[in-house]
């Protein structure tokens, strides 16, 4: 039987995917239904990687759809579940009518009747994938919700039941149903959350209600959820046997990671449910904390492990009193279950000052830690990576970033290794003047590090560390000068300020460099070291077309007053990033005391870019009572429960530290008013 009639009649070379002509698509399509599961996995990975690369759609995607849909009519054919899941992914996004995306979405959603029949397929994996496909069929959302509700009443497979709940939640979250149909969907979820015998279904329904219909949630969601989690962890589900094969693909690696994660667990399905419910509760930070604290206090390591991982996202993205959560997470650093210490160390790694309640546990963990470990081992002083190189271990790095001197002995050991960790300088830098005793070691390492092409992270970090040490680094100024004109050396000299007077001659020699950014960076360092505006103003005025020169000039105070018209001219056309607004505002205030102009520009920068808000707040702190007009923006910021740099589609290691300082500055400025 030919499963692909007409496949070889298509001119696949004339259509394209992410990597060029789609000549390989026929082989991928045939591989999707191979008897060999490794071949199927590789083929499906190829389809996602090329034909549907990162969610994109191409003419080859549209050309492949009839053949993919044709496979679904063959009951018992291996690989159909993967095909249905692929089709559901293609149909997720809306596209412009007539575009490749639009045509693909239309073709997938037109297959709604076919997906409907797959809800009764004998194979659970196909039924599960059919739920995902039905959830993208916007025009038939009401009928899909009814069919999914009926399926829930008779479904015997736990994974499919959970998929039904997720599909109903997706339909509700999209807002595709209105009126009575929307009410009926919320009622279905609410009934499942309260009455269903399967605790996984109850928890999934709670999460979907929190995301799409929070008004019908039970009164005490944490207590309600904890009862279901207790049942789930107590009963669990049998862990599936590993697939027993390996493929050099992303899908294969993800599958193997899931198999490793599930090994030895009673309830491996609990973590995604806990993560989904916590995320769906959004700004209900107190409820999320009440959900996690009992799990972190549980004698069951599995509950604690899941809660540690979920607590990370809560603390990193949402404001609140997280002291109890942080202490409980830190308690896991010395737990006997080997999975807990690395999870706890990772959870604390980027919390900045919020990790302070964990300082003693971190110190005890570091004291008991091995010197070296691989990424899958316990949190050691340094992590040695399989591909080569090493980095400071997460617990030690967090302790250092708290400025805790108990981090000094292990950092000295790491610094004295033949090959120091790549980020050793940044860990030492966080200790500031407390690291004064390490200056001789740093100087020795700077001299014996091998010469590297371009930027060397070890050398650059150590230079910046010397800048943070302060007066104790004066004997090392010559070592820093030897690495000019590297930007890290300039940064170190600027941070040392008047302590780096020995470097003035070397900086003078670089002041007229033709490269605008370098000249501006040199001028900035020289200003901070020498304090003579007349020496740097000619250089800065020549390079005002570079934002760095504007930034440095904004620091010069009254000496820059004559240049204010030139600085203000840089605001036309407007800068969408807000950084120029910030620098010109700072110059207006420091050079001329023009509070009105400064506040106007700072308000503009604040609204344009959340990532400018912290330096804007620092500038407002200088203005004192003159910042009164911007007070409503500060009050609005303090009223937000989410951290200002947090984003669903991105992550930054400095989010928590920056937000904590922003909140403090907003409060200080308002208090001064």
3D architecture notes:
This protein is an all-alpha fold and 673 residues long. Among the domains are: 9-136, Leucine-rich Repeat Variant; 563-673. The chain is built from 36 helices and 5 strands. The protein has a 3-stranded mixed β-sheet. The chain is globular and about 85 Å long.
Write the layout of secondary structure elements.
Blueprint: E1 16-17, E2 20-21, H1 25-31, H2 37-51, H3 59-71, H4 80-90, H5 100-109, H6 112-118, H7 124-134, H8 141-154, H9 158-174, H10 179-195, H11 199-212, H12 221-235, H13 250-262, H14 270-280, H15 285-296, H16 301-317, H17 323-330, H18 340-348, H19 359-368, E3 372-373, E4 382-384, E5 390-392, H20 394-401, H21 408-416, H22 424-431, H23 439-448, H24 457-469, H25 477-481, H26 487-496, H27 504-510, H28 516-530, H29 533-542, H30 547-553, H31 564-569, H32 579-592, H33 595-608, H34 613-623, H35 631-638, H36 655-672
Parallel strand pairs: 3-4
Antiparallel strand pairs: 1-2, 4-5
Helix pairs in contact: 1-2, 3-4, 3-5, 4-7, 6-7, 7-9, 8-9, 8-10, 9-10, 9-11, 10-11, 11-12, 11-14, 12-15, 14-16, 15-16, 15-17, 16-17, 16-18, 19-20, 20-22, 21-22, 22-24, 23-24, 24-26, 26-28, 27-28, 28-29, 28-30, 30-32, 32-33, 33-34, 34-36, 35-36
